[in-house]
Amino acid sequence: MQETRLDTARIRAARRVIDPMFLDTPLYRCEAWEPELGCRVSVKLETANPVRSFKARGTELVASRLVDGGSRAVVCASAGNLGQALAWSGRGRGLDVTVVASRTATAAKLARIRALGARLVLVDGDHELARDRAADIARRDGIRLLEDSLDIETCEGAATIGLELAAAEPTFDAVLVALGGGALATGVGHVLKELAPGVEVICVQPAGAPAMTRSWRARRVVTTDTADTIADGVAGRRPIPAVLDDLLAVADDAVLVREASIVAGMRMLLDHAGLVVEPSAALGIAAILEDRERFAGRHVVTIVCGSNVDLAAYHRWTGTPRH
Amino acid sequence: MQETRLDTARIRAARRVIDPMFLDTPLYRCEAWEPELGCRVSVKLETANPVRSFKARGTELVASRLVDGGSRAVVCASAGNLGQALAWSGRGRGLDVTVVASRTATAAKLARIRALGARLVLVDGDHELARDRAADIARRDGIRLLEDSLDIETCEGAATIGLELAAAEPTFDAVLVALGGGALATGVGHVLKELAPGVEVICVQPAGAPAMTRSWRARRVVTTDTADTIADGVAGRRPIPAVLDDLLAVADDAVLVREASIVAGMRMLLDHAGLVVEPSAALGIAAILEDRERFAGRHVVTIVCGSNVDLAAYHRWTGTPRH
Fold first, then answer.
1. Chain B neighbors of A282, CB-CB under 8 A
2. What residues of B are in contact with residue A47 (Cβ under 8 Å)?
3. A251 located within any domain
4. Which residues cross the membrane (chains A, B) (predicted)?
5. What are the tens digits of pLDDT across the range A266-317?
6. Looking at the structure, do residues A44 and A134 belong to the same domain, yes or no?
7. What radius of gyration do chain B's Cα atoms show?
8. ipTM for this model
């Protein structure tokens, strides 16, 4: 395989640093979907933990290394999941955590960041403005800036999912990975390309926020002026060059899906798995729904990456409104 | 501790027979509930597997031992979860599985039993009539009758949850266990009384189906004429004497909760954990809601035991109806 910034030995070592609560998550087949999807689908469930997303795998590493290095503070920009995870990992280690987010971010995510004791800075703009503001704060205060997908810990943490998938029995044919900044896709992709090279690594992004997918296809960074999707966790506009390079080395494909397919995927997770998830977590099923022929008869794993969602919006999207 | 029919060495050995997919399930704290509940609550999640309940821990043992003994067929009565789990475990081992259920059982459960290839026999009556009919079939066909909670495999399988709880860090003060036939409560209770005797074992049953709780309190079998609860998984009327004896040895308390509290518990699992569960899985939270003072400041584990629910009914109960 082509080189990436990741190293499998380091990823294995990372498992010893991460709270075991976030590791060895459920992986199980959901047969009730199969008549509709036409393929075998297994769920890798990353939501059954205190922060309801996979992000703590990375923040456990970040927080641990910061403390080991004598740091007391860290700031990150976040659509909400990274911030919540960093707040959780930081609180347990006495770190001073600041999270910068868009004022329009998912309210449930912002509420949990506050509840976990982090300082929350809101910006009047989208996630890219939050990234700029977080960088300003880090410079001003002389503290560590954690950059999702760029900082290797976030990729290594996500990559521990890849170790678990590579060790899984029975084996599978393809993995569907939500694509936003790229930490999850490059991390999981790196490990699978090294340990299970026969597995197709397919990244899935909303058509309304296609920057990284377009960049992967063009083999150079392509930015977009807007990002318009309910999948807030993957709604970036400015891919990071180093992350794109890694993605080019490990992804077999990157596909775009419609909002209606994302909602249909959320409904299938509700109807047949009892899981209320955020839109990003349904991207994989959306990809199958949009191209059943591609997956027909194969065994596909989809990573259900987060469940932090505003219930009112969830019910509006899925047609199960609250009374 | 007092003797029960269970043996911890056998329960440890059972772990080697059960498909690992059903073991070492997530155990995690849900802080978002704590302002409302007034105590630390951790979820032991038994729904992230192919049959969406803890029952496969037991049916894996049953099916494995049947095959080892040369049997080819088995019949059980079930409200739906045991039947689904037995169908799953039997299918993988080439067993001929018959499940007897009430015609009024949860449709989603019956559909999954059929989809897994089991023969489904429906009776015009409640679960107790299904038990009688299953016994008739076993006699007529000369095949093994699996009796939930009476047959030791069902208790030993459930008891493997107790091993995982006893090994958990941080430790906790009390466990809330849904009480129906008694396999889950006696299994988990046996292990905790032996390995973590400081943990209070509290059984929770709906006030509308109180037979086992009344029996525990009276220290003799008390039957009821009716069972009236949405918690179909625990709606028995005729406790089994041997199971009651075990429950008397291991349970510290048995409490009854109202239907409204069960629904409130289901809402909390939806609102703050993203989990759509069946009513039986919300009994533990219902118990906290009805007696906050008892649990104030303590760390309580609740076993989320199943998520097979008819969504139309779920939405009706919880006030989140489908469009």
1. none
2. 274
3. yes
4. none
5. 999 999 999 999 999 999 999 999 999 999 999 999 999 999 999 999 999 9
6. no
7. 18
8. 0.95
